[in-house]
Design a protein that fits this description.
- The complex is a heterotrimer of chains A (257), B (404) and C (614).
- With 257 residues, chain A is α/β, with parallel strands linked by helices.
- In chain A, the strands form 2 sheets. In chain A, strands 6-7-8-3-9-10 form a 6-stranded mixed β-sheet, with helices on both faces. Chain A has a 4-stranded antiparallel β-sheet with strand order 2-1-4-5, covered by helices on one side.
- Chain B has 2 domains: 200 residues, 3-Layer(aba) Sandwich (Rossmann fold), CATH 3.40.50; 160 residues, Rossmann fold (3-Layer(aba) Sandwich).
- Chain B has 13 helices and 14 strands.
- In chain B, α5 runs parallel beside α6.
- With 614 residues, chain C is an all-alpha fold.
- Chain C has 2 domains: 279 residues, ABC transporter involved in vitamin B12 uptake, BtuC, CATH 1.10.3470; 279 residues, ABC transporter involved in vitamin B12 uptake, BtuC (Orthogonal Bundle), CATH 1.10.3470.
- In chain C, strands 1-2 form a two-stranded antiparallel ribbon.
- In chain C, a hairpin with a 2-residue loop joins β1 and β2.
- Chain C starts with a helix and ends with a helix.
- Classes of the chains: A alpha/beta (257), B alpha/beta (404), C mainly alpha (614).
Amino acid sequence: MSTVLQVRGLSKSFGGIRAVRDVNFDLAEGEFLALIGPNGAGKTTCFNMLNGYLPPDEGTVSLGGQSLIGKPPRDIWRMGVGRTFQITSTFMSMTVVENVQMALISHHRRVFDLFSRATRLYVDEAMALLDLVSMRDQAGRACSELAYGDLKRLELAIALAHEPALLLMDEPTAGMAPSERVALMALTAEIVARGGVSVVFTEHDMDVVFAHAHRILVLNRGEIIAEGSGSDIRANPLVQEVYLGGGAVFETEASDA
Amino acid sequence: MTVIRRAVLGAIAALPMIGLMPKAGQAADPIILGEVNSYTRLPAFTEPYKKGWELAVEQINAAGGIDGRPLEVISRDDTGDPATAIRIAEELVSKDGAVLIFGTFLSNIGLAVADFAKQKEVLFLASEPLSDAIVWSKGNKYTYRLRPSTHMQAAMLAEQAAKLDAVKWATVAPNYAYGQDAVKAFKSELTRLRPDVEFVEEQWPPVFKIDAGSTVRALEASKPDAIFNVTFGGDLAKFVREGSLRFLFEDRDVASLLTGEPEYLLPLGDETPEGWIVTGYPPADIDTPAHNAFAEAYEARFGEIPKTGSIVGYNSILAIAAALEKAGSTDTDALLAAMEGLNVDSSPTGPFTFRAADHQSTMGAYVGRTGLVDGVPSMVDWSYADGADYLPSEADAAALRPAE
Amino acid sequence: MGFYFAQLLTGLANASSLFLIASGLSIIFGVTRIVNFAHGSFYMLGAYLAYTLVTLWSGSVLGFWGGVVLAALVVGLIGLVVELTILRRIYHAPELFQLVATFGVVLIVQDAALAIWGAEDLLGPRAPGLDRAVRILGEPIPEYDLALIAIGPAVLAGIWLLFHKTRWGVLVRAATQDREMVGALGINQAWLFSAAFVLGSALAGLGGALQIPREAVSLQMDLSIIGEAFVVVVIGGMGSVSGAFVAAVLISVLNSFAILIFPQISIVLPFIVMAIVLIFRPYGILGKPGSEAGAPEAPEAPLTLMSPKAMMVMCAGLMALALSPLFTAEFTSVLLVDVMVATLFAVSLHFMMGIGGMVSFGHAAYFGVGAYAAALAVKFLGFGMLPAMAFGPLCAALAALFFGWFSVRLSGVYLAMLTLAAAQILWGVTFQWQDFTGGDDGILGVWPPGWASSDRVYFYIAFVLCVGGIWVMRRIAYSPFGYVLRGVRDSQTRAEAIGVDTRFHQWMGFVIAGAFAGLAGVVFAFSKGSVFPDSLGIALSIDGLIMVLLGGIHALAGPILGASAFVLIEDWVTRLDYWRFIFGTIILVVVLVAPDGIAGGIQRLWRIIKRGAA
């Protein structure tokens, strides 16, 4: 399998605190990779460097051979990276389907079209995407009326609109009820299984991680301390110490908000 | 109660959409005069003015009106905005049937209405605005102006200033057309009379936003022999206060435009500076039969002594009445013909004429010095300066106007 | 040396005056997020009340200072009444809506002050014991200036103690930084808001009262101070009292030295300083990110296409408008042109504020640039009316392109204030550049050519341009561009994450709004035949803001209803005595009855009628 994402020597400091140091990993096509670690381990910092919100101090990130470093988030999106947010971010004054249409309009480079009716563009594609996340029946509802779990699913549909090669999901299940979590991740796994997209996600909930991730990276104090499949990680003494033994790992991190 | 009733009746009468009723023509129909002024923006100046024209209208109507027809003034507030003034002028002419427009105080509104008058071919008597442009650089066939202009009043002061020993002058004027015109006129007139004077400092505070302390200090720093002041209203009070606190006026002559007008002088109270050379109007001290009659009637009617605005408002109506009588018609062409060289003989401030060449009236102003008389701010040692003496010749003035 | 030191002291005395009023404004905004236009009115009331009290107790030191303090307290009380009776009821209205109410208060106070204290300026007594000048380094310095120099920092220290040493003050600071947290802690928010409003008003009153020994009390005091007070608050950072102090000192001292070198600068200096500060520090000198945001509010409902019934109503309305010259008096056409111009202007402002989420306090700039560009093209380039009408919006768009580039780098009230600075700088240049713009005397003779000079023909020209302009803006609102612009307003993060260059998009939105404001400006110029600096002035910008907010910012019909109501009511009401009082009262009634604007009010009324019928 070919490599989609290549991360080499990624480092970032905040005022002397090294939040992320020398992170290296590859992501293969069709892979479902989890990035875990206790609070303050550097997950979010790492994540934000992948999607262009934070410039790294050192290191490279390349997608299909093209460097992502120094590019604004919108360019990274255009290169085929979709993303969802820890706290959902959608267009609250629009309906569900309009939210998806916006992504499609942007994908088809029609944001400066001044005379078409936006709501009539790409309706079928948008509906198909909503189908994918089982939101078709809610297409006409105002986004502001949705339950939180539905917003998460909507975000997923938006993120898939431009047929990304890579999907970055920051704490996709944060704030959801346990049953919803399982459903959302099962849905994501299904999408990955259909092919064409690879996923990197960060997660707190170990059940979710172990149930779906093909491979897991464990970060602690900014460094990767372990890597492997679910069973490898469960068996890793270092990980056990970090997760079970460690009060010491609770550092605050500026970017972890 | 009456205020409310008046408001309600006025409101009903004024509903803008009702423009359908044609006015039946009858012999005793009133002659409608349209009037616009900045009543809410500058009430201190426009209220006395309104009382002035009200008195004149009442007197004329009591005496039988013009050719048996009473005068009726429809008066509107322009809210201080030229665009609103134009809309109102339009309504006065096209809906209310006004035969002419008079009024306005602010120069820019005066200019806007003058231009409107030219476009719509209706007579406009600019009562109060001072701008020279109204009759000169932007003068037009349809516009006449009553009050002595910036140039005239500055020239009156320059004449007195030329008699002083002072050589080094500083100026302070609000930073807009009026202030700029006044300083320019004063400089040119004074330099003409006294080629040896020099102007060492200019201050241009924003109008109604003077930083008086800093301005006074900047003037002081230039060590002038004398100061020419154009600030007025609240700016003047601040300037006087800060200036006297900081001894700016000690051993210095001050020539100050309009400061002798009661509207500007009275608010200074017991802090009125003594001995400033000013133009203005001393209502209580003018002892001519015409003025006494006016002042008595005014006091009887309104319970207060007249101010400059009162006399301007009163003279406006006198001029309009004279024009209507001379024209013998309310037709604009006849009125325009009547206005050319129109003499108004019986005004409280003496006779004046509307010059045919530049449409400026020769109504003058009083020039004197400021002082406190029995604790009341007053003008002393004043004399009447006839406007005709401070205007360029009619031929020169006509050359200042755009070709028609 | 002595001279410059004395100039510095003069600047510092002015700074104290300015700080007093700005501090109150900053506190009110910090806590309640209300952009309080009535702050200048409170300042003026403080001065009038102090004048009355100090004159009553004239002569004694106690009488003077007692009068000043009592005046401040009474103004605080008036602030309480305003807060309890009006503002408290509309805290949940859309962002900035409260400023409409404070605008109503401004109008009412203007006429109330005129009725109570009369039209003439009132010169109060000087402060007993501080009525002379002392010599410092040989230069005369008024004693009262020295007192003011002491009072400013003393009040700052008092506010600091209040904010750091009392429970209430700690809550106020917390509320300034994080409003939701305070709500979550279960603190009685209403009480906190009232108290902040009272404190802010009392400080404004104190600022006004302390001016008695320096200037005559006049009816212009309210409007002459409010712009500068906002500038100071913004330069300092919204909600930051010490920032306001620093900014007041900066502005006043700079001004006192600048007028020595370039006296004409006074008129725009504060706005230039503000623009520079905001370009380099987007949250002011001591402001924090987040200090710009308004109160949190519920998201807007999705846009829907018009229902057939609404479409019919609209077509009927348009038809009636189009045919109106046939059955109304000629003057009505003139008034309707004004209505259409105001409506197009309001719609363009709504495009920017409502759809783009960029509040503008200086939208008149583009209206004025359009009007001036057309007038100057006629005057200097010999353009006919129609080419000039094309040239005006183009120039307005160029001006918007320039100022917008800076503005879209900011957000919230800071963005709004930068637009105001841009407008004021343009106004200042226009006002003073007599040779080119005619200065205050404006440009005359910009009338339509003969074929279009009748009121009725011009009505149809205006109809085509204004209704056409509004139609195009509506169309854009429903287009991908408009939707994405709303998206950027809803969530910049999401927009960026679907590949939108948010800043560029907002910038283009700004330019479109500016171009259509310019179109309104050219229609205006040829309907009035002349152009004056007022057409780029604050008053027009504020009128536009009131039209949009009063109409209802969350509806596309809002600015249309708001502008029509505003112009027609104003045209009617100015015929009455004390019309500002009546107009202000009408505004307050509308605000209280329809906190969601006229459009929202009509919708609710419609629903009630339907329910009643069913």
